[in-house]
Amino acid sequence: MDEPVRERRASLADIWHDQAAETWLLETRSAGYAFALADSGAALRHLHWGPGMPTEMPPALIALAGGQPPRRERYRTGARELPDEYVPWGGLRFDEPSLKADYADGTRSTEWRFTAQRLTRQGATSTLELDLTDPVYGLVTTLNYRVYDGFDVIERWAVLGNRGDQPIVIRQAHSANWWLPDRERWRLRYLHGGWGAETRVAEATLGPGKLVLESRRGTTSHQFNPWFTLDPGARADEDSGEVWSGALAWSGSWKIVYELTSAGHLHACGGWNDFDWSSRLLPDDRLVLPPFAGLYTDAGFGAASREWHAWARAHVIARGDRTGMTEPRWRTASRPAQRPPAVSPAGEPVDGAAPGPGEPGAGPRLRPVLYNSWEATSFSVSQGGQERLAERAAQIGVELFVMDDGWFRGRENDHAGLGDWTVDASKFPLGLDPLIERVNALGMSFGLWVEPEMVNPDSDLYRAHPDWVYHFAHRTRSQHRNQLVLNVARPDVADWVFAQVDRLLSENNIEFIKWDMNRPFSEPGWPAEAGHNPERIWVDHVRNLYAILDALRAAHPGVEFESCSGGGGRADLGILGRAEQIWTSDNTDAWDRIVIQEGFTQVFAPQTMMAWVTDSPNWWTGRRLPLRFRFHVAMAGALGIGGDLSRWTERELAEAAELIAAYKLIRPVVQRGRLYRLASVTADSCGAHEYLSDDGAQVVILAWWGPSSCGGGRPPLRLAALDPRARYADVDGRQQYWGAELLHEGLPVNGASQDDFGSTLVRLARRPS
Ligand code: GLA
Q1: Which of 23, 231, 355, 426 could form a disulfide with 361 if both were Cys (CB 3.0 to 4.6 A apart)?
Q2: What is the mean pLDDT of the chain?
């Protein structure tokens, strides 16, 4: 009897409601999530998040507990801190609430009743919406749960609606409240860093109380990333063990609270940062909160990463809005620029508009090999200089040539120019056309750097509109990199930002935009709105940014985007809905990058991880590394070249051409395959990634090691997820291996080599049996 259920669950996600017991069960590929109505309809109480469970089980749990969700407090608290799916502040609750609202008559707590549910099936997704209504004030909180066929990801978000006749001030509103099962000694893993040192994995053991990770900077931030894993007893590792993971899709200030409550339950809850934020919800207004996705696996950190990657490829990357958060706002009168028929580097036709949420689609195209001029030319760009770089880039096999900063009026250094987005006629007397034509004639597409949310005080824009930046009356306007942040929450400023980039894309054959954002917010004021909720800027800025990007993508299908914020300061699942790739870090030292990339791939797919090969010694760290090593590290994601090619020797150029050709061969497996992090330079004698094609037939190994010590060699590298009975041939050598041998004895990676900073690339193909 069980078999058909299992079969269906293998491919279809589904949502079950038991009317008698008032329970819900979300079934994903191999996991389950359940909750029940409690307290006579006043709460939705969490029951389960973990391995899949039979559909009969949630109602049985309720029956066993005498008609109510079981109470599982470990300690008596004198409170009612039960694990509710979404917690409105009020009553005897002292743990972190999900929602805090002020009503017009001075009431500041919320009580509600479950009033309605809707279940919709669209494409490969099922979405459950549950309405919780405050009967007095008309605040309706709709909890959304979305499950995806073939995945273990559950996406949650809330929508707040004011159906009353008075304004409601929302002071805190989380996207989701994730309750974990009652286990002991939870380990939290998260990503922390700074400029040049992003996405490094940190760990903490959670004891009683709260740990709060957040950004108050207006962007996702270099310091912390809204992603986590939790595993009880620190028992999980890369290959095994139970792991719960979450990722918030938001590119502005955020907050996630990890709290082991006084009652002994652990929850991870969060969304928009409530610090300095509030939103005044007028009658009939709606507030759509960003998605907070979560997943469970019993197969370790590696499996959690692979799930995030595959799900993002299928449903997030460049798919646009998944929740109705942004409404189409700009129409463009301009025609998209004429450009050659779009084909991917692999020769496949490129889709036009990306499919919407839940709609099946081909998935993002393979990332082209890119050249970026920043480290070579900094602000000193010129037509001749860029053409010389482009010629060399084309010679070594680059497919997309990107001119970085310095091309617009007044931009001689970082003191001036931001805001004046017209081409500098002294550098490009005939505009960008001649350069773009030359780049196209060399067989490459052309991309451009912009930083449209910013302004230098030394710019015509600022001189004309000093009130367009965030500022407080009678307070310093703190500069950072000599620039200020435009108040993109203002509709007129958002219109202007859209118009600048729309014009550039309409007038020039630009096929790629690197969208930068180089400083955090400060003095986040909007004096003209004093008394009218200027604190909303934290959210409205990002919502408008999303709407601008969505509109630009709709108006210019085929143009692709990279998200950059002084390196990897804006890396999250929200921006990835609008960008094909992320600039991982301004630190291009390949040895440092291994660690940054190890953290980045915990949640983000390799194809989104832009990695450049730059000059040696590295401009920032001064470290000298072999060209091959630098390439092998950058080949772990989307390969780019960022060095000054005019100074590379013929030998270096020839080696680069050979390595780029090798990358193009492994690219489909690296970008679309499954990533196994075999070893970490922070713990092992070398770092290594294995990428496995979906059918298991192609295997790519990249391994890197640092200085050797005491003449010690490195043990062979044990591979993962191969068929032990199959034979695998080294495509570039003569060697053949049994799968069992590679899994148990390992692949010899560096023989007797004592090289400091050595690396290898091995391609294996499964032999037909
Ligand atoms: C930021 C980016 C760099 C480069 C510069 C240009 O720092 O991270 O890659 O684009 O801005 O000013």
Answers
A1: 355
A2: 93
pLDDT tens for 258-281 read 999 999 999 999 999 999 999 999
Catalytic residue among 149, 152, 321, 586: 586
Asked if 644 is an active-site residue, the reply is no
Mean pLDDT value across residues 383-400: 98
Share of the chain residues as helix, strand and coil, in percent rounded to the nearest 5: 20, 30, 45
Query: Does ligand 1 come within 6 angstroms of the Cβ of 574?
Result: no
Q: Ligand 1: which of 220, 222, 381, 518 to mutate, judged by most atoms within 8 Å of the beta carbon?
A: 518
What integer is the mean pLDDT of 531-555? Answer: 97
Strand ranges inside 632-672, DSSP E: 638-641
CA–centroid distance, 643 to ligand 1, in Å, is 14
Q: Per DSSP, what are the bridge partners of residue 371?
A: 401, 641
Asked whether residue 339 carries a pLDDT value surpassing 80, the answer given is no
Measured CA to CA in angstroms, residue 463 lies from 135, 525, 528 at distances of 51, 19, 18
- Catalytic choice (321, 516, 540, 572): 516
Does residue 562's CB lie within 6 angstroms of at least one atom of ligand 1? no
300 lines ligand 1 (CB under 6 A): no
Tell me the whole-structure pTM to 2 decimals. Answer: 0.95
pLDDT value at 712 more than 90 = no
Cα distances from 72 to residues 33, 64, 83, 91, 209, in angstroms, run 17, 13, 9, 19, 18
Say whether pLDDT at 5 is over 80.
no
CA of 567 to the centre of ligand 1 (A): 7
Q: Which long-range contacts (C-beta less than 8 Å, at least 24 apart) are formed by 459-467?
A: 459/410, 459/416, 459/417, 459/418, 459/419, 459/420, 460/409, 460/410, 460/419, 460/420, 461/419, 461/420, 462/419, 467/527, 467/528
d(CA 606, CA 637): 4
The residue nearest atom 1 of ligand 1, judged by CA position, is: 566
For the question of residue 586 being annotated catalytic, the response is yes
Residue 159 has pLDDT above 90, yes or no: yes
Burial of 712 (0-12, 13-18, 19+ CB in 10 A): exposed
User: Probe ligand 1: pick from 219, 375, 404, 480, max atoms within 8 Å of CB?
Assistant: 404
The percentage of residues in the chain with a pLDDT greater than 90, rounded to a whole number, is: 88
Q: In this model, does residue 727 exceed pLDDT 80? A: yes
Mean pLDDT of 324-336: 68
**Ligand 1 contact via 564 beta carbon (within 6 Å):** yes
Residue 673 CA neighbour count, 13 Å, CB half: 24
- Reference 287, options 157, 166, 178; nearest CA is 157
What distance in angstroms lies between residue 566's CA and the mean position of ligand 1's atoms? 6
* Separation of alpha carbons 534 and 553, rounded Å: 29
